[in-house]
Hints:
The complex is a heterodimer of chains A (566) and B (307).
Chain A lengths: L1 H15 L19 H4 L3 E2 L5 E2 L5 E3 L4 E9 L15 H10 L1 E10 L4 H11 L6 E4 L2 H9 L7 H7 L2 H9 L1 H6 L1 E2 L2 E2 L2 E2 L10 E5 H7 L7 H13 L27 H6 L10 E3 L5 E3 L5 H14 L12 H9 L5 E4 L9 H7 L3 E4 L11 E3 L7 E4 L6 H14 L6 H7 L16 H15 L7 H15 L5 H10 L4 H10 L4 E3 L8 H24 L3 H25 L4
Parallel strand pairs in A: 4-5, 15-17
Antiparallel strand pairs in A: 1-2, 2-3, 6-16, 7-8, 9-16, 10-13, 10-14, 11-12
Chain B lengths: L12 H24 L10 E2 L5 H4 L1 E2 L3 H7 L4 H32 L3 H12 L6 H11 L6 H8 L14 H26 L3 H9 L4 H25 L7 H7 L5 H4 L2 H10 L4 H30 L5
Antiparallel strand pairs in B: 1-2
Helix pairs in contact in B: 3-14, 4-8, 4-10, 5-8, 6-11, 8-10, 10-14, 13-14
Amino acid sequence: xxxxxxxxxxxxxxxxxxxxxxxxxxxxxxxxxxxxxxxxxxxxxxxxxxxxxxxxxxxxxxxxxxxxxxxxxxxxxxxxxxxxxxxxxxxxxxxxxxxxxxxxxxxxxxxxxxxxxxxxxxxxxxxxxxxxxxxxxxxxxxxxxxxxxxxxxxxxxxxxxxxxxxxxxxxxxxxxxxxxxxxxxxxxxxxxxxxxxxxxxxxxxxxxxxxxxxxxxxxxxxxxxxxxxxxxxxxxxxxxxxxxxxxxxxxxxxxxxxxxxxxxxxxxxxxxxxxxxxxxxxxxxxxxxxxxxxxxxxxxxxxxxxxxxxxxxxxxxxxxxxxxxxxxxxxxxxxxxxxxxxxxxxxxxxxxxxxxxxxxxxxxxxxxxxxxxxxxxxxxxxxxxxxxxxxxxxxxxxxxxxxxxxxxxxxxxxxxxxxxxxxxxxxxxxxxxxxxxxxxxxxxxxxxxxxxxxxxxxxxxxxxxxxxxxxxxxxxxxxxxxxxxxxxxxxxxxxxxxxxxxxxxxxxxxxxxxxxxxxxxxxxxxxxxxxxxxxxxxxxxxxxxxxxxxxxxxxxxxxxxxxxxx
Amino acid sequence: xxxxxxxxxxxxxxxxxxxxxxxxxxxxxxxxxxxxxxxxxxxxxxxxxxxxxxxxxxxxxxxxxxxxxxxxxxxxxxxxxxxxxxxxxxxxxxxxxxxxxxxxxxxxxxxxxxxxxxxxxxxxxxxxxxxxxxxxxxxxxxxxxxxxxxxxxxxxxxxxxxxxxxxxxxxxxxxxxxxxxxxxxxxxxxxxxxxxxxxxxxxxxxxxxxxxxxxxxxxxxxxxxxxxxxxxxxxxxxxxxxxxxxxxxxxxxxxxxxxxxxxxxxxxxxxxxxxxxxxxxxxxxxxxxxxxxxxxxxxxxxxxxxx
Lengths: 566, 307
């Protein structure tokens, strides 16, 4: 479990550094200069400010002062005698836009000191001009206290084409920083479309038995049966199981999410909360398909296709079972070739492929994903007079720091946490953004137009495909980004077919959820295990009523009020 | 307990006692800091505790956390499991080491005795994280050594860790296996303290080995047994978190989930410190009652005073 957590953190931190640019125009790599549109035809205006042909301010003259707060970190480096007040980003913003950045305070981000300090500043009504908030609550409190500037109109007027496009692409992240439909800031862009569950199967077992990946639940049963009883590894010993699931069923990897998805249950974590077809708030585990899915698992259990001892095996043990070749098929997320299936490559040189989860007759596939609400938030102090400046910073930052950033630009503006010197940092999620670009390059076999940051991925994936590279990074990326690989399935099968169900819980968590979450999770695990072992489907009904009565109903009611039907 | 000879009230007494005070000082400071100082944290149990607001900034809500705790649907089952498991461990944890040390005492070969003693003492030093991995392997019905031995007799091997009926017993037996070596060290020490002259005279009177054990050995170590029992009473609500947490699974929650593991899932994992503190305080209160009762019983039944 620790490994999985560490891995997840690694992925998250990678995501948070991801660049941001126009995905549809890969041929137009932005040079590390400011928003080109605005600078096209600078004119002198009466007030001294430099304007573009539409009368928008490009550069303030005389320069204006703008305060902000630095989140420091131990990794952050000062290059060539830079300081918090005078560094690569501050010089750029001053030069391009006449914005003179002043540091209001600095505080360490990892220890929580920054958040504490910001909360104090908020309490004393002394926020800097640009506020970088890691907590939604602080943003909301500041809004309620009247400290947050409405930037809707300025944004519409000043935002670069790229940012306007992001507004279309990531509506969830913009809703996140809007109140009553008015934009009050900007946040990291979020897109969870690649967060679904897939079915991972060992290639060699399929080959040995001459079988193909299942499309329906019946075919899944046949394949799992063959994996258990037809000696897929050819060692003459009955030492394999059809499908790997761990004792907790709904945590870590080797979960039953994928199987539930095949029965129309958008399972994920403590259950995706969403509005059902009838418009009522509901939870994934209350869906009618749960009974059939558990019945199916019971059949696997009774027939000896599931490991009879799965009830004591956690994800770590499953990892060992997978590595030692006892398990050839399991459900998991798009990063399966990074963990646990990398172990099979290491041990036996065997590769795996991911497939869309099979669907049961009479059901539609429903895949649960997290909410697209954004991450870190940047907002403008309502006392600040020039909201244009805020949007100009966003424009310029995203024109430099993006997918097309070359290693040289990256070494100047991003590496060693140099990006922290910018008061606004905007990032896009990597998988949904990168996959289409990479897929295009794989199809044409032409990598020359690829953004600099994706060249490595292209080389690794094609290197793995041709057999030249066998290292774990090449394998991991290949499993994600190759044509037909996991991210492709998430974006081009699940998302296109409308299988995705997004958790409704975004910025604000209902209080009752934190109260009852672990209780409900316990109940799900316990009841589901019970049904899988006994096959008594009537227990599903009693599970539903206890789920509602021990706090679930309260969460649903609270959500109903928090996220009213549109 | 025998008291140490009281130092005479000579003028030099203070000087002579000074090094002793210095030596005991670190222990007193640690107890003061971490046992008494930390008691202020009990307040959290009566608060709607928000870590960023701290102990003094959080709202006081009386017994609400306790009400939440005791209105959990599984709480009474969990308390029952805790008591069943911990009482069985306590009883087994007294009987087994006593018998073992009596038997070991009868071995005359010094080297065999030492070897055995060391061997049974070893598991005590292993953490449950490691032992859990080992037990999951050896108790597996299909691949574990225990399962294979049982199935070689043609009997279907039981699923020790997955069967709710067997899980508590498995916990008790494995815990006793781990700790009885340590327990027996204390009793072996007590055994060496018995005056050999008693045995010699008993032999002259024609007492058999069994009679000697019954009338000399057992009364000789009775006070130690009582002391250990009284001390273990404090653990009546300690089912052994690290053991159970590493070995249990949702399928054995009905009989295997104890107070500590419930609180861990509910409180620590969700960062709800107030509920965890309430549960901890409840455990301490119960333990306190049990300790007082056992002191009184020890005095009443065995005429034995600790303080």
